[in-house]
Amino acid sequence: MPLQAIIVNKNDNVATALRHLESGDTVRIDIGNTTLEIQLTQSIQFGHKFALDDIQAGNTVIKYGEKIGIASSNIIRGQHVHLHNVEGFRGRGDK
User: Fold this and answer.
1) H helices within the chain, ranges in order?
2) 77 and 38 Cβ atoms separated by less than 8 Å
3) Which of 31, 22, 92 is closest to 50 using CA atoms?
4) Is the pLDDT of residue 94 over 60?
5) Is there a domain that residue 95 lies in?
6) pLDDT, tens digit, for every residue of 29-53?
7) How many domains does the chain have?
8) 32 and 21 in contact (C-beta within 8 Å)?
9) Containing domain of residue 70, as a range?
10) Cβ neighbours of residue 21 under 8 Å, at least 6 residues apart?
11) Which CATH number is 76's domain given?
12) How far apart are CA 36 and CA 90, in angstroms?
């Protein structure tokens, strides 16, 4: 089966979709010697992120081993992670 998503660093709490993924899909992701299975709660567009575990509001979102922002609301495992629920550290430019 072709790769569906990627995790670059073992500390990441989001994965990046490598193709369009549908709500309800179970995505298998290898990180080191571990394989995670995440059932998606929403459709995820190519290049967008989804949560590997629950992320509480106020907690850091980590992608590619880098802290990219703070969860602005509770995010559940398998949920789309984007501007609607993450406040980036660099600022969005619209506030």
Assistant:
1) none
2) yes
3) 22
4) no
5) no
6) 988 888 999 999 999 999 999 999 9
7) 1
8) no
9) 5-88
10) 4, 5, 27, 40, 43, 44, 50
11) 2.30.130.110
12) 30
